[in-house]
Amino acid sequence: MNALELQKNPQLDRYFVRDLNQEPGGWALADASVDAVVCCVSVQYLQQPEAVFAEVYRVLKPGGVAIFTFSNRMFYDKAISAWRDTTGYGRCQLVKQYFGCVFGFTEPEVLLEVAPSSGGAVGAAPDPLARLLRPLQQLFERGSADPFYAVVAYRNFRREDV
């Protein structure tokens, strides 16, 4: 996304634009400073995924969530060959491996759909993960037969984090 697209998003209180293939690390964010990192339809283009996932871990607060969403669509010439040459299942496994390259994430979970909000008990807070994922899934559902994939993991709470 570019700055103009991000600027139009009323849900953001801040953002930055960065070419993660040129500069995968050194984001202008303090250690353990964000609640969530969301990467929508871009993981297939990462040339240094381990460095990017390490940076995601660095900036997440303990308990913070990292969400990588994608479908089967891609710019074929830009996607890495490991992505192009596999199936949806294989792509989910690849993203899970990226998480596994960085010590400190929980076991990644693959989500193929996001349940609509059930409303729950009166006054209950909505599930924060569903609140983040639902709008992303809706993008895939609008007149498309593309599948929706999300691979999600959390920054673990470790003794040195508390």
From TrEMBL:
GO terms for molecular function: S-adenosylmethionine-dependent methyltransferase activity. Gene3D superfamilies: Vaccinia Virus protein VP39 (3.40.50.150). InterPro entries: Methyltransf_11 (IPR013216), SAM-dependent_MTases_sf (IPR029063). Pfam families: Methyltransf_11 (PF08241). Residues 28-68 form the Methyltransferase type domain. SUPFAM superfamilies: S-adenosyl-L-methionine-dependent methyltransferases. CDD domains: AdoMet_MTases. This is Methyltransferase type 11 domain-containing protein. The lineage of its organism: Eukaryota, Viridiplantae, Chlorophyta, core chlorophytes, Chlorophyceae.
